[in-house]
Amino acid sequence: MTRTVYVNGEYLPETEAKVSIFDRGFLMADGVYEVTSVLDGKLIDFDGHAKRLERSLRELDMPHPDVLPDLLDVHRELVRLNGIEEGMIYLQITRGAPDDRDFVFPDPETTKPTVVLFTQNKPGLANSPAAKKGIKIISIEDQRWARRDIKTVQLLFPSMGKMMAKAAGKDDAWMVEDGAVTEGTSNNAYIIKDNTIITRHLGNEILHGITRAAVLRFAKEAQMKVEERSFTIAEAQEADEAFITSASTFVMPVVEIDDVTIGTGTPGPIAARLREIYLDESRKVAV
Ligand code: PDD
């Protein structure tokens, strides 16, 4: 089935959707994005994603597209047109397409931002077999730029990290800077020791995950102890449990780090419980 996608105000078949070769997203990775999951045909954590998107635009001095206040309607319309029950909506905004390539930002009066959204249909997303088995990861040096708190489309290094994991026969990679874990290639990283959930504090070094914020809130509401601080790979290998969070994986247990088994080598009870709580509570307030 041909997807219907959204490009600059129009709903079009994916085969007819076009963006200029001068688009700054294409030439300079001058763009920001969001991935919002869909469960039961509804959007999970839409408000959180919308707020982070506005922050990303602000931090990069990128003009707000006119459609910004109507993005919820656009997301819902794409869900409806494509009949999505479980999956994701990808949204990207770039600084637009000026007449030529130039390092200087174009005049926002004449160059309007480019806005693209499309759906990714993923039946069974919430019931993923990987969540029952857990994933295996490697550690790699974090070689990204210094403003990882902005959700830009500069994803080359994370993409290379995934390939390094794949080449090693594993599922993903955690990135390490100055001896401490920053985050996963496309997710936030956590360990659990003596019933305390430990995850890196917020800062410019990591993306402020929307799933992270929700999971930590639910954990605190369930009287679980949370510590927001750095940890090393050695500490993670000694942990009772480990897991990642993101809009596309929710809470996903990690059972091996650099060939060292974590806990019993199967998803631990706290990660499994957090996944359940996250899915239940998020479904209740999905829009
Ligand atoms: N990635 N850290 C990084 C580097 C990410 O790319 C992501 C999300 C996260 C988790 O953020 P959230 O909980 O808001 O999804 C953390 C998305 C899913 C992606 O690039 O596909």
From TrEMBL:
Superkingdom classification of source: Bacteria
UniProt-listed Pfam families: Aminotran_4
UniProt enzyme class: transferase
UniProt EC number: 2.6.1.42
Keyword tags: Amino-acid biosynthesis, Branched-chain amino acid biosynthesis, Pyridoxal phosphate
Pathways per UniProt: Amino-acid biosynthesis; L-isoleucine biosynthesis; L-isoleucine from 2-oxobutanoate: step 4/4; Amino-acid biosynthesis; L-valine biosynthesis; L-valine from pyruvate: step 4/4; Amino-acid biosynthesis; L-leucine biosynthesis; L-leucine from 3-methyl-2-oxobutanoate: step 4/4
Family: Belongs to the class-IV pyridoxal-phosphate-dependent aminotransferase family.
Job description of the protein: Acts on leucine, isoleucine and valine.
Record-given protein name: Probable branched-chain-amino-acid aminotransferase
Native source organism of the sequence: Yoonia sediminilitoris
Biological classification of the source: Bacteria, Pseudomonadati, Pseudomonadota, Alphaproteobacteria, Rhodobacterales
